[in-house]
């Protein structure tokens, strides 16, 4: 009970606030996807005229949703786990396994972030645009790499917390 009160009373970190803003942006984009899809279906059914570029708009919004929901999903621990096996291990083994998993995920996601950023740079240099609306694709890739970067920082923060807890 006291730990819960302390957690509620602590000032949110910059990473916590960033995650909150990203979560709201992801939720707004998800709602936008539903609205654009619904409007497109309505326009096709009633006026026999689809919304031009609706597939691209929904795809771009979906990319933003995925990228910006990563930190929230991490904090909610909503990723897949093999609980039936892990639950039977000792607490110390579970903690070591969590550290190993977080470290491996951090390495992988950091590489993905880095390579995605480089890919966005090459797309910007080539001037690649989307097929229908001719939107610059590199901006979407930069946004997605930003989401992965925030996820990387969340993983790094968890690893740092693990070692700080061990020292205390």
Automatic annotation (TrEMBL):
State the compartments where it is located: Cell inner membrane
Q: Which UniProt keywords apply?
A: Cell inner membrane, Cell membrane, Membrane, Transmembrane, Transmembrane helix, Transport
Q: Which InterPro entries match?
A: DctQ (IPR055348), TRAP_DctQ (IPR007387)
Q: Mention any one GO cellular component term assigned to this protein in its UniProt record.
A: plasma membrane
Transmembrane stretches, by residue range?
21-45, 57-75, 96-118, 138-160
GO annotation (BP), single: C4-dicarboxylate transport
Q: Cell inner membrane: is it a keyword of this entry?
A: yes
List, for all copies, the residue spans of the domain called Tripartite ATP-independent periplasmic transporters DctQ component: 33-163
An example of a GO molecular function for this protein is: transmembrane transporter activity
**Per UniProt, what is the membrane topology?**
Multi-pass membrane protein
What the entry lists under Pfam families is as follows: DctQ
* Major subcellular location class: membrane
Family, as annotated: Belongs to the TRAP transporter small permease family.
PANTHER family named in the record: 2,3-DIKETO-L-GULONATE TRAP TRANSPORTER SMALL PERMEASE PROTEIN YIAM (PTHR35011), TRAP TRANSPORTER SMALL PERMEASE PROTEIN (PTHR35011:SF10)
This protein is called: TRAP transporter small permease subunit
Q: Which organism is it from?
A: Pseudodesulfovibrio cashew
* UniProt lineage: Bacteria, Pseudomonadati, Thermodesulfobacteriota, Desulfovibrionia, Desulfovibrionales
């Amino acid at each position: 009970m006291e730990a819960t009160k302390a957690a509620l009373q602590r000032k949110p970190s910059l990473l916590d606030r960033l995650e909150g803003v990203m979560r709201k942006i992801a939720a707004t984009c998800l709602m936008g996807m539903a609205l654009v899809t619904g409007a497109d279906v309505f326009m096709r059914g009633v006026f026999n005229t689809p919304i031009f570029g609706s597939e691209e708009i929904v795809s771009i919004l979906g990319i933003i949703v995925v990228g910006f929901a990563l930190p929230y999903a991490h904090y909610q621990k909503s990723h897949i786990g093999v609980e039936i096996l892990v639950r039977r291990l000792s607490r110390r083994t579970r903690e070591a396994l969590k550290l190993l998993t977080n470290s491996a995920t951090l390495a992988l996601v950091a590489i993905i972030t880095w390579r995605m950023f480089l890919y966005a740079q090459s797309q910007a240099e080539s001037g690649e645009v989307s097929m229908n609306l001719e939107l610059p694709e590199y901006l979407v890739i930069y946004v997605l790499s930003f989401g992965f970067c925030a996820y990387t920082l969340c993983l790094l923060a968890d690893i740092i917390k693990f070692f700080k807890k061990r020292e205390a």
